[in-house]
Amino acid sequence: MSKKDLKSIFALLGNLWQNHKDVIISMVCLSVFMGSRPFISVILTGMLVDAVYAGAELRELLYAAAAGVGGIFLMSALEGLLTMFFNRKLEYMQEIQAQPMNQKSMSMDYEYLEDVGVHEMRQRIEKFGGWSLTAIVLSVLNKLLNAVTTVFVAVCVVIPMFARSNHAVSEGFAGSWLMSLLLFGVVALLVLLEFKMGKHYSRLEAEARKEMSNEEARSKYYLDIMSDCEKQKDLRMCRQQNLYEREFRQIDASVKKTADKMAHFISMDIFMRESVSALTGFLVYVFAGVLACSGMISIGGVVTYAASILKFMDAIGKSAYYLSWLSGNSAFAGDYVTYMNLPQRKHEGTIPMEKRRDGKFSVEFDHVSFKYPGSDTYVIKDLNLKFVIGARMAIVGRNGSGKTTFIKLLCRLYDVTEGCIKVNQVDIRKYDYEEYCRLFSVVFQDFQVFSFPLGENVAAGSAVDERRASDALHRAGMGERCASLKDGLATTIGKEFEENGVSFSGGEKQKIAIARAIYKDAPFVIMDEPTAALDPESECGVYAGFDKMVGNKTAIYISHRLASCRFCEDILVFDQGQVVQRGKHEELEHQEGLYKELWDAQAQYYA
């Protein structure tokens, strides 16, 4: 294995060692027991055969047998307990592995979460052949250490016997050294061949496994469609079943083809290893027979010698195989190392936010330009604007004009490419990020409501101020609905994990998301299409109550419905990443420009 391969494997294990030392310790102990226990019966059998030939009494034979059986029983019992513990850990290794990865996901720069390459990397790590990567690496290491233990114990058993047999060389069989060297030379060549072929097939298997990992991710996507009632609505009403079936058959055929390749490589590897093992066994027994016929070892020694040599050679072959497997599949461990070491590109500031009783802050975009990582196209270009917290602001424009990107930059989900954003004349990159985030209550267009209790969804945590949560839901238009819930704020959203959970409509979920923003009580309230899922009556009610909901905070609304912007004091019109117009509705609807063009296009639909 290369230094890079070892580094990747040890990094994977090092992370596990930090929080789950018991797993590593149990794995090592289990390997030692599994590798050494079989030799008790091998040595015992040889000793009993020699004792029988030496004419030992039955009582002595029974004592020896009882001691050996007792030792085997004790080690088997300990091995069983360790196996049970170790296998239990492997069963939920997916969750153990996910914990540090989830922590990384929640702390890494937001841009990585929108990076397809990073997403695929995590999929490969999590679904390594249907099992977690860490679990499989631990399982292979367990077998590798088992084999290494077997090699060590076999050497400890065989060397004294080999020394005794060669003591007889001076008494008449000088060819034994030559025969021994010849045997070990042939076996060494066979083991080398096994290692080379094993490494070759392990590499091919790893390539096929990586290909299958990507295909299984696509397959899972198609399978999830079948269990998602929202996706099924479009599938059925648009009569897309044939399209779905065709796509699924194609990916299914691709998965099967790749699985066949993997099975072929694994079968060839097993065939090669079994052939080497059979040939090695034949050579060992021939050699042991010659030594026995020459009187150099006893009949019992033949059993012990041959069995130990066979276990030694088998363990050498397995060690070579597992090393080659780790080497061939270390790329997946490399994915883990890469993922966990993704660098923080976003500047981490330290300045605390200014505490203002009036909640007013000045915001300035100073020659701000931005393009997404990996893209050469500017989404925001040389943007200059100022506004003071406390106003009602609307952001409108065509799709792709930079509205949502403007919000992402303001919330520091991304840092600007050029220029800077200032709050109270200070570059926001200099502020402590956690404190800066407390400025914003945001309802994104693709908001998420989770399968947690309603109160925890609103409070965004397990500590729920029930009075505040109820007030926020009422102000968001969910008062009557909440009053009808049997369990109130303790009601679980959705039935995915709770039989008594309640399924809320899309509009109700949007109101819950709005209530979450109200509950946070931040100086900024940002709404990205805040009423997209609401019916006209609910939309009217929400807009009518916005002043009450928002209070004296700054409210920024992104909307495609220009009628919903009429109550705002300041409207920014975005086009190709720049603010091309700014003013009140009454001013902009009479000015020649994009706003009037959009207003006239929508006005025919307004009553």
Major sheet: 6 strands, mixed
Low-confidence stretches: 168-174
- Helix share bin: 55-70%
Q: Which strand order spans the largest sheet, edge to edge or round the barrel?
A: 6-7-8-3-9-10
DSSP strand (E) fraction? 5-15%
Query: Structural class per helix/strand content?
Result: alpha/beta
**CA distance, first residue to last residue:** 74 Å
Radius of gyration: 35 Å
SS summary, helix count = 22
Specify the overall morphology. Answer: elongated
Would you give an account of this structure?
It is a single chain. This protein is of the alpha/beta class and 607 residues long. The chain is built from 22 helices and 10 strands. It has helices at residues 3-19, 21-36, 38-53, 58-91, 93-107, 110-113, 116-126, 133-167, 176-227, 229-237, 241-293, 299-340, 403-410, 433-437, 454-459, 466-475, 479-483, 506-520, 536-544, 546-550, 585-588, 594-603; strands spanning 362-370, 380-388, 392-397, 418-423, 426-427, 440-443, 524-528, 554-558, 570-575, 578-583. It has a 6-stranded mixed beta sheet, with helices on both faces. A 4-stranded antiparallel beta sheet has the order 2-1-4-5, covered by helices on one side. α16 (466-475) packs across α18. The model is unreliable at 168-174 (pLDDT under 50).
